[in-house]
Amino acid sequence: MIFRADRPFSRSPGMPDITTRPLSSGDLHDFRSIRLEALQRAPDAFGSVHEIEVVRPLQAFEDRLRGSLVVGAYHGGQIVGMAGLAFDARPKDKHKGALWGMYVRPEVQRRGVGAALIEAVIGHAPEGIEQVTLGLVKGNEAAHALYRRFGFVEYGVEPRALKTPDGYVDEILMIKFLEGSPGNSEQAGPLRSRL
């Protein structure tokens, strides 16, 4: 799929010195660094684990960049957040995208970085993506409120979605229909279109 290249950078309204942009193979080390940090600092929020991904070769991270849209948030030249959008080329599934890997460093949280990442992911989504889904660990109220603010709505809960050393964790399943797609007439929120 082709990503929208007409919007390479955007700025966070909460932190005007934050920029977001799609990551490419030239950003491989930034991507690996922020992904591993996310898995280490927030292990219960992700399906993968640090111990497995830290030993993966760089090629595995490059393959992930090539196989999905990954957006990075930068502050002072340093990556401070990321979010990805996975999609499928199969004819019956190519209208769907799945938000994954959303992470913002604690020192820049609650400053609009997460909102800027969501805007960038949706704004750069490949043409043909009509809906975006996500799974959110139950109990992460700040993230839940952010997704609701952007028009994501709950459509279910997957009980025992993840098994951690401390036990099972449920995931809230959410969806957002993009403008022009069937099913979006009841959604509200700042992002009703591709931007």
Per the CATH scheme, the topology name is Aminopeptidase
Continuous helix count: 5
Percentage of residues in strands: 25-35%
CATH class: Alpha Beta
Q: CATH H-level name... which superfamily?
A: Gcn5-related N-acetyltransferase (GNAT)
| Main sheet makeup | 8 strands, mixed
Cα end-to-end separation: 18 Å
Please describe what this structure looks like.
- It is a single chain.
- The chain is 25% helix and 32% strand.
- It is of the alpha+beta class.
- The chain has an eight-stranded mixed β-sheet, sandwiched between helices.
What is the topological layout?
Elements: E1 10-11, E2 18-22, H1 28-41, H2 50-53, H3 58-67, E3 69-75, E4 78-87, E5 96-104, H4 113-123, E6 131-137, H5 141-149, E7 153-164, E8 167-177
Parallel strand pairs: 5-6
Antiparallel strand pairs: 1-2, 2-3, 3-4, 4-5, 6-8, 7-8
In short:
With 195 residues, the protein is an alpha+beta fold. The protein has helices at residues 28-41, 50-53, 58-67, 113-123, 141-149; strands spanning 10-11, 18-22, 69-75, 78-87, 96-104, 131-137, 153-164, 167-177. It is globular, with a radius of gyration of 16 Å.
Offer a few descriptive terms.
195 residues, alpha+beta, Aminopeptidase, eight-stranded mixed beta sheet, globular, disordered N terminus, disordered C terminus
